[in-house]
Specification:
Length: 226
């Protein structure tokens, strides 16, 4: 595993992990990689994080709860057991979520995501991250059947479309300015999903935010609220 993944597990920035390596003589030595991009043994790093109270062991079952919506507005609630969420560091990258699912849920999700723009993620809550939402292009990239018969479902979406779910409601946390064309003075970029579709906000990472906390749109101080 690389430093970026260590940071995601501990829910800190990469710079914090670099500081741990400098300050703690017992931090595990790299097992591969280069001086610039060292790789570490996962089990040794996790053991070190636990020993130094950087992470904790969950006291109960881990479950991700999702609300997905298809292009025609149909929604479906589902859960993924034993979820594994990987958030990309680069907005040009891809976020990946996997977990154990039922056949019925997996079939419904695949149907919702089968359109040209995939499905949207109205709200997702999972261990290690705040409520997330994705404006679109959520797709099923793998269905794995284990030897015991369990079905593991893997979803992915462009990291640049990740946002924060609204508190207390189902939906994407909207920007504080008019949800219109790209002419306003705004720190956010815009994602054009086609002439016939509304423009979506490409969320920017919080300055100094912790990895795994999700991403929220940045607000423009000079723009008038909608």
């Amino acid at each position: 595993m690389f430093l970026a993944e260590v940071a995601r597990i501990a829910r800190v920035g990469r710079a914090a992990v670099v500081n741990w390596r400098r300050r703690h003589d017992d931090f595990p030595d790299p097992v591969a990689g280069t001086d610039v991009h060292p790789q570490f043994d996962r089990s040794r790093v996790v053991a070190w994080l636990l020993a130094h109270d950087k992470i904790g062991i969950p006291t109960g079952p881990t479950v991700a709860s999702l609300v997905l919506a298809g292009p025609e507005g149909a929604t479906h609630r589902l859960r993924l057991d034993d979820p594994w969420l990987t958030l990309a560091d680069d907005p040009a990258g891809e976020d990946v979520l996997s977990g154990w699912s039922t056949d019925t849920d997996a079939d419904t999700v695949a149907e919702l995501a089968a359109g040209e723009f995939g499905a949207s993620l109205r709200r997702m809550t999972a261990p290690g991250t705040g409520p997330l939402a994705v404006l679109g292009e959520v797709r099923v990239i793998e269905r794995f059947r284990s030897g015991s018969g369990g079905l593991r479902l893997t979803l992915a979406w462009p990291a640049g479309l990740r946002g924060a779910a609204s508190v207390g409601s189902v939906g994407v946390e909207r920007h504080a300015v008019a949800y219109a064309g790209p002419g306003e003075a705004c720190a956010c970029k815009r994602h054009d999903r086609g002439e016939s579709r509304p423009r979506g906000l490409v969320a920017g990472a919080r300055a100094g935010g912790r990895a795994g906390d999700g991403v929220a749109s940045r607000r423009s101080e000079s723009a008038a609220p909608s």
